[in-house]
Amino acid sequence: MNFNIESPTSKEELLNCLRNHQSGYFRLAAGFTDLLIELKKSKTEELTVINLSQIKDKQFTGIDIQPSGIRIGALVNVAQIGKNQSIRKSFPVLQQAADALASGQIREVATIGGNICQASPSGDLSCALVALKASCEILKMDGTIRHESLNDFFRGPAVTSLQKNEVLKSIVIPANQTNKLKSGFIKIGKRSAMECSIVSISYHFQLGADAAILHSGIAIGAVAPTVIFCREAADFLHKLNVNKIHETDQLKVAELIQQSASPIDDQRASAWYRNEVLFNSAKSIFEQD
Amino acid sequence: MDKNLNIIGKSKPKLDGKERVSGRAVYGHDIELPNMLHARILRSQYPCARIKSIDCTKALGLEGVKCILTAQDVDVNRIGYKRDHPVLKKDANCQRDEIAAVAATSKEIAAKALNLIHVEYEEIEGIFDPFEAMKEESRQINLHGKGKDLYGNKNIAESFHYSHGELEKQTKRSKVIVSRRYELPRVTHCCMATSNITADYSTMDGRLTLYASTQVPFLYQRDMAHALKMDPSLIRIIQPVIGGGFGSKLDMYPFEPICALLSIKTGKPVQLLYGREEEFLASPTRQTMIIDLTSGADADGKFTFREVRITMDNGAYTSWGATTPFVMMQTYSSLYQVAACDFQAKAIYTNNPFAGSFRGYGNPQATFSIERNNDLLADELGLGKDEIRLINANYPGEITGQGLHFKTCGAKPALTKVIEASNFIRKNREKHKGRYLKGVGLASMLHVGGGAKIYRSDGCGTRLKLDHYGYLDIITGSSEIGQGSETVLAMIASQELGIPMKHIKVVNTDTDVKPWDVGVHASRTSFVAGNSLLGAIRLMKQKLDRKAAQLMECEAGEFLYENGLIKRDKKEIRIDKVAREMHFGSPNELCIVEYFYEPESSFQDKQFMGDVSGNYAFASQAVEVEVDTFTGNVKVRDVYVSQDVGRVLNPMGLQGQIEGGVATGIGYALTEEMIYEKGYLMNPSFHEYKLLTAVDMPDIHFYPIETLDEAGPYGSKGAGEAPLIPTAAAIANAVSNALGIEFLTLPLSPEKVLKAWSEKKQNELANSQSI
Amino acid sequence: MDENLIPISFTINGEKVSKRILPSLILIDLIRDQLQLKGTKPGCLEGECGACTVLVNGSAVNSCLYMAVNIDGKEILTIEGLSSIEQPLHPIQEKMLEHGAVQCGFCTCGIVLTTKAFGEECKKEGKIPTRKEVKKSLEGHLCRCTGYVKIIDAAEDYLTHPSV
Description:
The complex is a heterotrimer.
Chain A: E1 4-6, H1 11-20, E2 26-29, H2 35-41, E3 48-51, H3 58-61, E4 63-66, E5 69-73, H4 78-83, H5 85-90, H6 92-100, H7 104-107, H8 112-117, H9 124-131, E6 135-140, E7 145-149, H10 150-153, E8 154-156, E9 159-160, E10 166-174, E11 180-188, E12 199-207, E13 213-221, E14 228-229, H11 231-236, H12 247-259, H13 271-284
Parallel strand pairs in A: 1-3, 2-3
Antiparallel strand pairs in A: 4-5, 5-10, 6-7, 6-10, 8-9, 11-12, 12-13, 13-14
Chain B: H1 17-21, E1 37-43, E2 49-55, H2 57-61, E3 65-70, E4 91-92, E5 98-104, H3 107-116, E6 118-123, H4 130-133, H5 147-151, E7 156-164, H6 167-172, E8 176-184, E9 196-202, E10 207-212, H7 217-228, E11 235-238, H8 255-266, E12 270-273, H9 276-282, E13 288-297, E14 303-315, H10 325-334, E15 340-349, H11 363-381, H12 385-392, H13 411-421, H14 424-429, E16 436-448, E17 460-466, E18 472-476, H15 485-497, E19 504-507, H16 525-552, E20 560-562, E21 565-568, E22 571-574, H17 575-584, E23 592-597, E24 616-628, E25 634-644, H18 651-670, E26 676-677, E27 680-681, E28 699-705, H19 727-739, H20 750-770
Parallel strand pairs in B: 1-12, 10-11, 14-15, 18-19, 25-28
Antiparallel strand pairs in B: 1-5, 2-4, 2-6, 3-5, 7-15, 8-13, 9-10, 9-12, 13-14, 16-24, 17-18, 17-23, 20-21, 21-22, 24-25, 26-27
Helix pairs in contact in B: 10-11, 11-12, 11-19, 15-16, 16-17, 18-19
Chain C: E1 6-12, E2 15-21, H1 27-34, E3 53-56, E4 59-62, E5 75-77, H2 91-98, H3 108-125, H4 131-137, H5 149-159
Parallel strand pairs in C: 1-5
Antiparallel strand pairs in C: 1-2, 3-4, 3-5
């Protein structure tokens, strides 16, 4: 493994870097936890990696809380997300997804931007963020910003809408409109830690005074080419009392969620298993414990 | 035996632990010699192929490449237990086959050179199923195999047949008979340090020094000499600190003579380290087996017979692992009382990677099949699963059908203990409802506890050196691979000679220095090396007693050794003074002794009858699980372990062996499996081969049984392998108890469990509708 | 070749170091091969086993997945940095020995460092971790010898007696 590296320290240097490399092959990296594993296996000789991790600009590295929502810089690492008190309070689904990702050592370096740009169908943060209806702020080479919903940003396994002249700058999660929440992340794997999801479900329900679901987001991971937002299931739940969802409605939600999935067989699990577990886990969201 | 023990039986931290915990311990990966080259191996692109040509020109042209070896460049003997394994291959017989090896001035250059070697292959359709391999029309997989002459089938690598009792009669008098086919997966050791070796050949004197992580240095020295056509005495094996063994380092593998050859050819030290992927691809595995077991019991629940046919996938070459039937047949013949047993096992060549030996050595597989069948027999007889086991439990004084003599036997106490501690009787009958279903399972095991006489000697030598200042060197033939043998040996010496632990050093890593030992395996080290040490201590005490008596002007005879003093009545003298006086005065001798211990065990005869071990270890485990019927995940909640260890020597060290063994057993039961497709390993990484993590670990409750067997040091028995042997069986029994479903294969992966559960639910639904 | 080398300055085990490194150099290779600190173990080189764990600015990371260029200006602590002439073993190491958490020892050094980082974090938050949290803190470490129980015991003992 041998590659060249360029380490811009500011937005301007980054844009310059991008401009210089438009005609050649380059890769972007921040935490390197995925890229290094890929490069160790590849035989590529001529490669430049643009190392984002030394960029100091707050818009890349900070968590910014505004009345309208929360902006998380693409270089914020997963551990920071897991430990952030605002996120813990307002978006438990994201905090839980962050805590469930790989190991403590990986979480210290892996970034939210990297996790998203890998566009893995089983990406834990991606799954939570899609349920939260997050959007991307993408810095273009000319310095302008392009906005896109995260749901649209994902185009396929390991494919995003990101162009060669663009870098993911930050993620914006819209603020909750109510204070009462039911929000969580379900991750199914073979062991209790260090797992890549076989199925994941993110849910984030904002509740009215009577526990009625006013705003809902549900996303599923590892059961389709991308993370999927389960619109029908979310719509179906509108105005239902979160504590009194009848068993038939629970089954209906599980069915709707399952219908939005299109899993395949792979080494980790069969499509049958993924379907089954997705259904069962979806059913369990509203089970009172 | 009834003397006051103030060291033995008390927890002692690992003697060499400080080195290991501080990063100072030198493992094979940490060795750097001047001018050292780095080696890499090119492995076959196909599991089965003819090699038409190998072109190394480009690779040799790369700056820094010092040597490339292929089969044509070396004059070596084949290796392996059956000598059917070429060091470098002329044709490819499995995915891990070594085609060429490079030595270069850096790791990076060596890796680059591999990519420049051009091999032209002609791929051949491989044979990956042992049953297919046994067909008449199948081609011979290993051309050096002797199966045709020895066993009537060219693809049989090894075959065993054993029987005792009257099978037919016992079959007839059986009230219930259970027949099942079990399939056990390939799993691997996952030593945290990957395979490694550093070879240093001196062209000056023709001596070869190998820094090798072997478990069996003296057999290894001999095997290496055979491979290289060298005089064994010219080969010195130095064992660096070993980062995990578990049986994986029992055989010598091709990478080791290859590294030696590169050093011989270049005249420079050469180091070869596996990466983790290579470790998965090319280090040994536990045997995958297909076991057809028929078990019977009479109306009283007494076991009548076991008839078993085992098909082992040997892979392309034969390792010591092919001899696991030695251990398995003991389990079939003698775990619980069985009136008759008929055992056949065949190791079949395939184009899969070859198996090796792995902690438990066939016993987890055998125990799994027996203990699953036992639960089924109990069900059919309407007996409790605890009852059927207690009825048939082994007992002290028993001489089994195979001739194993259980002079002491903690089988029944161990069973009773885990049944009580786990509240087994109540829990096994409880029915649960809802998403999470609990179950409890029981299994026992029998294993050698006093070595195993398989090789011509099962002995161990010890040299003891007491210096002028009262410090003791224990130079032992035995090897330390993390299990804590050096601590136990120091404890024994401290106990007997009254020398504080911190004045004792254990020297155990150099074949030029240490006396012969057969190696670390068969849970034998505390037993055999311990007895050897006790023998040496006896000799040393004779010397010291004589001199002490003279110095203290008292009668010869026994003295008390305590706190660095030799005492009798009110007289005492410092042990170091005795050692000095022995040297400087009469008889002008050093206080050095040597002893070789050979266990009293005997060889088996041609029919495999015989008492092969100094004593036998017994254990039972009860496991409580909780199955998530939504996902199929099995969570092990509690493991109750009771084991006849003879005598607890170092409680903390013993408990560490128990917990580690159980953890490996849980992995075998639930998550671990090497997935092969047409000879290719599909999951060669820790990402896809699932070892359990700290988060997965259940609570482990351990209850040692002390039977004080006179053969072992202070009455102790071997204990290292036992804890993982019954675990998978107990877990499978527990899952069956929770779900009311039988499982015939491992691992009990979430998918397998969920599938069985949903089929059961569908059948129940269909049945209820049809009524 | 030399013009491709990148200058970096960092502190390792309290000592300031400046080096010129190949751009693609990985931290574990810098530590083991160039600085000769062999206590950092190469277990898998893919971030799965944790044997190579070191602390970067106090956080436990896998040195096999960390770019050496990114330690510029940072503080590194390896297992060797825990020992001093006055105090050869850190209390965590003492606990590991006392509880019998060390068998082959290849995983141990990484675990010691992760536990140190987790201890500092707990101290900062003023909390005493539960056993469950202790287990979770060790999730990124594989061990084949011990079955983890004694490692968890040792870490818990250290982490719940924060005075040391």
